[in-house]
Known about the structure:
Number of strands: 5
Number of helices: 3
Number of domains: 1
Distance between the termini: 44 Å
Largest sheet: 5 strands, mixed
Strand content: 35-45%
Order of helices and strands: EEEHEHEH
Strand order of the largest sheet: 1-2-3-4-5
Radius of gyration: 13 Å
CATH topology: Transcription Regulator spoIIAA
Helix content: 25-40%
Amino acid sequence: MNGPLVALRRFDVTLKIEKTVDRRGMIVSLIGRVRAEDLPEVARQLEDSGPGAVLQLDEVTLVDVDVVRFLNRCEAEGVRLVDCSPYIREWMSREQNRSRG
């Protein structure tokens, strides 16, 4: 079952948010570039998905530092991040270490 598609447009940059359901629960997929100004909508989509939501990141092409911090908070709150690119994972790790130290 496919859910709603949300597209946020800024000039030539678009973030698409797709929601699907599989046997494990709700999956929120982010597609494209994710920026700080997109985070309220991403947070709303996750909240509407209920507990156990999964954030699919394999089609994310670019993020900023606010998004990295948001992803760290999501993971700390129990949101599972799947197919996160190595560069985003590395950045997340650096931000976690920076905030601890």
